[in-house]
Amino acid sequence: MQTTSATTPDTLAPTAPSNLHAHTVSATSVSLMWSSSTDNVAVSSYDIYQGSERIATVNGTVTSYEVTGLKSSSTYTFSIKAKDSAGNVSVASNVITVTTVESSPPVVEPDAPKAWAENTSYHIGDRVIYKEAIYICRQAHTSIYTWTPSEVLALWLPE
Predict the structure, then answer these.
(1) Same domain assignment for residues 76 and 138
(2) What pLDDT, on a 0 to 100 scale, did the predictor assign at position 101?
(3) Are residues 55 and 23 in the same domain?
(4) What was the pLDDT predicted at 104?
(5) Dihedral, CA of residue 116, residue 117, residue 121 and residue 124, to nearest 10
(6) Strand order across the 53-59 sheet
(7) Which residues form the Fibronectin type-III domain (predicted)?
(8) Are residues 118 and 91 in the same domain?
(9) CATH number of residue 145's parent domain
(10) Mean pLDDT, range 120-126, rounded to an integer
(11) Which range of residues forms the domain containing residue 35?
């Protein structure tokens, strides 16, 4: 007599991922993190949702994901669902709403001032150091020895 053992199909869905939160938020990305789900066999993957659209799937051992390509100063909602290898899907995690930060214009540092020198051509906005003070050129000119920044304020503005 031969005995066969019947395999019971896995019909139990994993528990919902919990504690979904935004770890970091920038102007164009959000780093999501969550606590893992449990399953009677094993969690095989997590689906990441932006609103109702699935945007990514990660391995069941991973509990973070970086969403990129977002617009600055915009609001998004995210949730996570767990899946097992039998295709059972959990209910959604908590839903979070994230607003990306405003993108700021690049910071332009002024050119480092150069030492003032005679017989040098200066342009409006040029910055120089003379006697340990910084001056900004007010009028384009070629310097001569008597037109020093501290003496000719028509040409130089103290910073």
Answers:
(1) no
(2) 92
(3) yes
(4) 76
(5) 10
(6) 53-59, 43-50, 75-84, 96-99
(7) 16-103
(8) no
(9) 2.10.10.20
(10) 89
(11) 18-99
Q: Which residues, in sequence order, are bridge partners of residue 156?
A: 137
Most confident of the ranges 89-98, 104-113, 123-132, 140-149: 89-98
Residues 23 and 77 in one domain: yes
CATH of the domain at 66: 2.60.40.10
In angstroms, rounded to a whole number, what is the distance separating the alpha carbons of residues 158 and 81? 62
Other residues' Cβ atoms within 10 Å of the Cβ of residue 102 = 9
Q: What is the pLDDT of residues 8-22, one digit of tens each?
A: 889 999 999 999 999
Could you tell me where the beta strands, DSSP code E, fall in 53-148? 53-59, 64-67, 75-84, 96-99, 114-115, 121-122, 127-130, 133-137, 141-142
Given 53, 76, 99, the domain boundary residue is 99
Examine the domain organization and report whether 79 and 142 are in the same domain.
no
4: its two tokens: 């066969």
In this prediction, residues 39-64 reach a mean pLDDT of 97
The pLDDT tens digits for 57-80 are 999 999 999 999 999 999 999 999
